[in-house]
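Chain A, query sequence.
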Amino acid sequence: MASASLLLPLSSTFGKNNCANRHREYKINVSVGIQSLPSEPRLQSVKTMEHQDECAFMKRRNLINLGFGLLGLLSGSTFAEAAGLPPEEKPRLCDDACEKELENVPMVTTESGLQYKDIKVGGGPSPPVGFQVAANYVAMVPSGQIFDSSLEKGQPYIFRVGSDQVIKGLDEGILTMKVGGKRRLYIPGPLAFPKGLTSAPGRPRVAANSPVVFDVSLEYIPGLEDE
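Chain A, predicted structure.
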């Protein structure tokens, strides 16, 4: 369906030229008719009006087709929404029941301005600075829209903590977690994305130095045995 809609602008151009060609054919036939039949001028008037009506109809139709073609280019989700389909549910680390429980969890604020709530306190070790960690995360704007997620990629994200390999708020938040734990990080703008993130299909824009929210679960620390 998408490829068909891309051809609509081309068909509108063809329709315009075809209409013009028939207009020239009418003029030739009418000029011949004027020489052969005295009543032909009246026929010329009728044909001209019919031709103008047909061209106007074709122009309106082509404009409508062009509009639908442009709508198809904007987003594939437009057709799903128009059909009344529900938006695709993305996997989360904190479901509805978790969200309700989180309301009663006390907020912790650090000196940097980072805030967090522990969804689940882990029973394993905390990662030493410079060690690699494997963590799952769901990154959201404050409204709850997801803009990145390791769950959608199907594997934990591995990085070295305390080495500036991720944004500062995530780095700081994971350093005090324990393996098996799950935490929600409320990351202020200065600890988030200095340059922001551009929007993409299914992903909201993240403005530069704007706050973000990360749900993080610390899965394991490669090479470090549980204590």
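The CA atoms of residues 89 and 146 lie 10 Å apart. The two ends are 57 Å apart (CA to CA).
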